[in-house]
Amino acid sequence: MGLADRVSGQPHRVLHSEINAWVIARFGWADITPLIQAEVWISRWIRWAVLPAATLSLLAALLTRETRRRDWLRRAWHWRTLLAATLAFVLLFAVPWQLTGWRPQVPPTWIEPAVAGLRLGVVFLLGLAGAAVMIIAAAGAASIGNPGPMDRRQHD
Questions:
Q1: What is the pLDDT of residues 123-142, one digit of tens each?
Q2: pTM beyond 0.70
Q3: Can you tell me the distance from the alpha carbon of 4 to that of 24, in angstroms, rounded to the nearest whole number?
């Protein structure tokens, strides 16, 4: 919507209202809030789970020199990889992020910044754990599919 604001010169609320009016007129819906919320969550899932899984899988393919075959994208979007990335995003990014807005009732002394630092530190550490899970899932995605030369000998 930021680009639409710059191009049209109109605030995005006006554009948002025009989109609402079009959807209401076209489909006869009185309230499109669920549609907008679904779009927001799908967009977040793509930005924070699907695309990072693909990017990290490409990185794992490049580091293991699997660039001859382009199976890295198929492996990145394997259901296990997407499930791990989605769970990491929800449990270790989205849910802990809610702590950033939490303001406990503490006295306005040294305790207040200490609690804020502790709260943000927990969010940071959980985010690092989420990033580690996504990296491990992407590295594991490099092993999904055809087994390598060592794996073939073990299976024969």
A1: 999 989 988 888 888 777 55
A2: no
A3: 21
